[in-house]
Amino acid sequence: MNRILVIDDEIQIQDMVQSMLENEGYAVSVAANGSQGIDSFRQHPTDIVITDIMMPEKDGVETIREIRKTSPEAKIIAMTGYRGPFNRLPAAEYVGAQITLLKPFTKKQLLQAIHDILEKEPSTP
Q: How confident is the model at residue 87 (pLDDT cuts 50, 70, 90)?
């Protein structure tokens, strides 16, 4: 069973993603911001990290960068609902997110992203 960490400051998003994934048989843990997510990942590494970009305390780009420092092989999906000129998904890809998703996304899109990231070869630093 694959283990997934969902990092998002919006409880509704945490609950929705957790429910979607648990219904598909994944073991899911959640964190409310980047700092909590990094701590959780260090204590209990997961197969995949799904992180929001815009969060208080530590945003998703910083979170991805920190996870990459200690786990260069980590599989990371970044997500955001922001579509304006300052969309941070390209920055998330630059620091190490292998896949990005725009909110709102469908269950099918989320499951496809997870399938795709599990099929990818591990990154090399």
A: confident
Q: Which tokens hold the place of 95?
A: 């620091």
pTM over 0.85: yes
Cα atoms in the Cβ-side hemisphere of radius 13 Å centred on 13 = 23
Domains of the chain: 3-119 (3.40.50.2300)
- Contact in structure between 74 and 37 (CB atoms under 8 Å): no
Q: Of the candidates 58, 59, 57, 124, which has an alpha carbon nearest to the alpha carbon of residue 96?
A: 124
Other C-beta atoms lying within 10 Å of the C-beta of residue 102: 13
| Radius of gyration over every alpha carbon of the chain, rounded to an integer in angstroms | 13
Q: Please name the residue that has the structure tokens 């292998």.
A: 98
